[in-house]
Amino acid sequence: MDHADIRGSASTARAAGPGTPFPEASVERTVEWVDTDASGHQHNSAILRWVEAAEAELFRSLRLPEYFPCAPRVQQVVNYKAKLWFGQRVRATVKINALGRTSLTMGFEVRGESTFAPDGAHPDFGTVAAFGTVTTAYVPAGAAAAQPWPEHFVRALRGSAE
């Protein structure tokens, strides 16, 4: 996967119209002490927490809160590229890469601020710390297997008016 495909700095979702990319969302966080391991850099689980926070922002902005109880992960791939340190600012971005009949795949990227921004300067999130994909399936309550996404999900993800 070319992780450059999921770059972006939007803090809210952007809807996709015909011929345009799927929506994406970003969150910014500070690496807290609890996010680090014994080596002093981010614990591997922190990356997925930040990605999940961006995913939550995406589906909140699409007004699809019912996504979460019915979209279990079926695959997660994380590629670690750089360390993030206590106190460093990070930006996690998720973008829907593919929407299938019963599943969807999001690409993600977590970037660290390359320098601590002095006196309110705009941070430069130039260092890719991790990138990868998360695939979920639509499994509504009571179902034993994946089902087709409801039409209102598909419309929201594709940016069509309801």
Strand order of the largest sheet: 1-3-4-5-2
Shape: elongated
Biggest β-sheet: count, sense, barrel?
Answer: 5 strands, antiparallel
- How would you classify the helix and strand content by structural class? alpha+beta
Count of alpha and pi helical runs: 2
- Could you tell me the strand content as a percent range? 25-35%
Element string (H = helix, E = strand): EHEEEEH
What percent of residues adopt helix (DSSP H or I)?
10-25%
Distance between the termini: 32 Å
Low-confidence stretches are: 4-18
Radius of gyration: 16 Å
Mean pLDDT: 84
Please give the number of β-strands: 5
Concise structural overview:
The chain has 162 residues and is α+β, with helices and mostly antiparallel strands. Helix content is 16%, strand content 29%. It has a five-stranded antiparallel β-sheet with strand order 1-3-4-5-2, with helices on one face.
Write the layout of secondary structure elements.
Elements lengths: L23 E7 L13 H18 L11 E8 L8 E11 L3 E10 L14 E11 L13 H8 L4
Antiparallel strand pairs: 1-3, 2-5, 3-4, 4-5
Main features:
162 residues; alpha+beta; five-stranded antiparallel β-sheet; 29% strand
What does this protein structure show overall?
This protein is of the alpha+beta class and 162 residues long. 16% of the residues lie in helices and 29% in strands. The chain contains 2 helices and 5 strands. It has helices at residues 44-61, 151-158, and strands spanning 24-30, 73-80, 89-99, 103-112, 127-137. It has a 5-stranded antiparallel β-sheet, with helices on one face. The longest helix is centred in the N-terminal third of the chain and has 18 residues, at 44-61. The two termini are 32 Å apart.
